[in-house]
Amino acid sequence: MSSIQLEVLLQTLISGILLGGLYALIGIGMTIIMGVMKIINLAHGELMMVAMYIAYVLFSAFHIDPYLSILVAAPALFLLGVAIQKFLINPVLRVEAIIPENQVILTVGIGMVLANLATIIFQSDYRQTPVPYATKAWYLRDYWKDSPVDISLSLPWTVSFTVALLITAGLWFFLTRTDTGKSIRATAQDLDAAQLMGVNVQRMRVITFGIGSALVGTAGCLFIPIYYIYPDIGGQFTLISFVITILGGLGSTVGAIIGGLILGIFESLTATYIGMGWAPVGRFMIFVAVLIFIPGGVASLLRSRKLGK
Amino acid sequence: MKHLAVAVSLLFLFGLFAAPVLAADAFDLVIPLPLTGKPAKFGEIMKRSYEIAAEEINAKGGVKGRKIALSFEDSTGKPEIARSIVEKLIDTKKQPIIVGEYTSSCAKAVAAIAEERKTPYLVVASADDDITQKNYKYVFRQNQVNAHYGDAVVSFLKEVVKPKTIAILYESSAFGTSGADAMEKDAAPMGAKVVVKEKFETGAIDFKPLLSKVKAAQPDVVYTVAYANEAQLIMKQAKELRIDMKLYAGGAAGFAIPEFIKGAQDAAEYVVSATLWTPQLKYPGAREFADKYKAKHGDYPSYHGASAYAALYVAADALNRAKDWTADAIRDALKATNLKTAYGPVKFEDKEGYQNQNFHETLAIQVQKGEFETIWPKSHASKPYVYPVPSWKDRK
């Protein structure tokens, strides 16, 4: 393998890992909502869109850095998520409906309303936050002159990736070490048992939806310096997080990270060695393969290993 | 209270009578274009330009003494919607001429309907070659065809850059594919070998794997055909990867609008793109239109705007010359068009297998210090070109 080929391979892997980290953060919110409530939140991408517009408005009106706007967007999205759960999903959960899974259909409706509201408010223009560090990158050759290969590491992508990891670690700590976190996990594992043990299940659901929304809101703020926004952007991310949720295993945070990374690396490798047009095809091939061969996702593999020993 | 009720009903009655009187006086022209959805940006530029043109034409007396009353219908960039809008305009509104649309796929749908219902259609900014290759009698295109979009860039490459190898990246749309195919055909006479030809989906996030592949192939030139956002993402990520080329070139659209420079910032520097028009051209009225647009909307218009602006003049000119407003009279008038517009001379010809096609001179622009400058052909140049281009490392 010549050095240029090695360089292409390494650069592809780095791109894949960075992309995977972002995917993981987008997917993680959906996966915890899925774990606790057993419903797929199909308005997930639209919630991300809302956060991106918050970051955009803060940037264009007050010149607040998109990374700082996480401090505004995440709490705002938490409240939005809480409101959606409390006033829209909970009432629907209580009624007997003719159609099964009517809460899922409700989330589709919520997503449409959000996307159309955004179209009314912001028009369908593409918006972006041109930050000065958007194309900043570190290069291996700047630090090590005689390096046989030159690898670059983009600053905004790396920041997003690092924050994604930190947040995931924080979330893991919250779920395993705090009282509320344990109650959420209990609700996810066995609803009736949790209720019998005195966990306020309704409250846990509301909190979970809030956290899930805040997480995807954070992802939106991390994403906007490297991408752009328009009102219909949500759909593609709902789809990606859905694939990650299935791939990682419902409700598993670690699974979501591994799922996101697998997806990111797989897409990058496909784009380099087969063709960029094939990346979406590959994504859904993974999706179908996981459903058939490992229906529990990565999480079930991890679990069976542990139990096997 | 009673007075108020009377006043309101009077107003209402007056409104009822007044409306038809006004309508008979003004000439209603409904223009289909994308105002929402992905191509909305271009639709907006064109809408504003049509409005400026209508204002000017009306100030000079309108068409055959009637003022133009412009309105717009949003086709959202979807051919089926564009089609149904135009069906309505022809069948129920009896609009004598159709002007508008942006994306090639929408224009194709509209052209088919216009031809079927024998209504003249002026294609404004859609480039896919085969719109005017189908022996349509009622379809006229003011815009250059995609096969010639790159002409100025190709001649610039041939005479200045002289590349041995070229990589072509394009988005998987009608516009992207035909633009890439045209460049592939132009590469051989230039003496360049196409080493990479790759397509990508719109909405893609990470172009680095694709760009790494380009880097490995080490071409002299990369030519990319993309709409708005992919163009700037590709340039940003090319800068991140420090992929040095003799030249980065783009095929109009996303590379030739102000958003490209705003989004890609310093990564846009020295990129050469095909375009059909710039405010720096010495056509009569070009500068005035550009300044008027900038004063109103804060930015210079891209070629899309100039094309729309001129299209309304072309349509008004044909309507003025037509002896009556039957389809055939308007068609004959359009066919006889010989007009000098702000967009350049407009004349509809049958040649090279195209019908009713305006062969418009194309240009090459280069981003220099954050501004588009016309660099090729030399007769139109506003600034000398910068070549060779400094490597990414040496830029500060």
Write structural notes for this entry.
The complex is a heterodimer of chains A (309) and B (396). Chain A has one domain (3-235). A two-stranded antiparallel sheet of chain A has the order 1-2. Chain A is built from 13 helices and two strands. Helices cover 74% and strands 2% of the residues of chain A. Chain B has two domains: 26-144 and 283-357, Rossmann fold (3-Layer(aba) Sandwich); 148-275 and 362-394, Response regulator (Rossmann fold, 3-Layer(aba) Sandwich). In chain B, the strands form five sheets. A seven-stranded mixed beta sheet of chain B has the order 7-6-8-9-10-15-16, with helices on both faces. In chain B, strands 3-4-5 form a three-stranded parallel beta sheet, sandwiched between helices. Chain B has a two-stranded parallel sheet with strand order 1-2. By secondary structure, chain B is of the alpha/beta class. The termini of chain B are far apart. The chains are: A mainly alpha (309), B alpha/beta (396). The interface between A and B is large, with 41 and 41 residues.
Give the arrangement of secondary structure elements:
The complex is a heterodimer of chains A (309) and B (396).
Chain A: H1 3-37, H2 44-62, H3 70-94, H4 102-122, E1 137-139, H5 140-143, E2 152-154, H6 155-177, H7 179-189, H8 191-196, H9 201-223, H10 234-248, H11 253-273, H12 279-293, H13 297-308
Antiparallel strand pairs in A: 1-2
Helix pairs in contact in A: 1-6, 1-9, 1-10, 1-11, 2-3, 2-4, 2-9, 2-10, 3-4, 3-9, 6-7, 6-9, 7-9, 10-11, 10-12, 11-12
Chain B: H1 2-25, E1 27-33, H2 40-59, E2 68-74, H3 79-91, E3 98-100, H4 104-116, E4 121-123, E5 139-141, H5 146-149, H6 151-161, E6 165-171, H7 174-190, E7 193-200, H8 208-217, E8 221-225, H9 228-241, E9 247-250, H10 258-264, E10 272-275, H11 286-297, H12 303-321, H13 327-335, E11 338-341, E12 344-347, E13 349-351, E14 354-357, E15 363-368, E16 371-376
Parallel strand pairs in B: 1-2, 3-4, 4-5, 6-7, 6-8, 8-9, 9-10
Antiparallel strand pairs in B: 10-15, 11-12, 13-14, 15-16
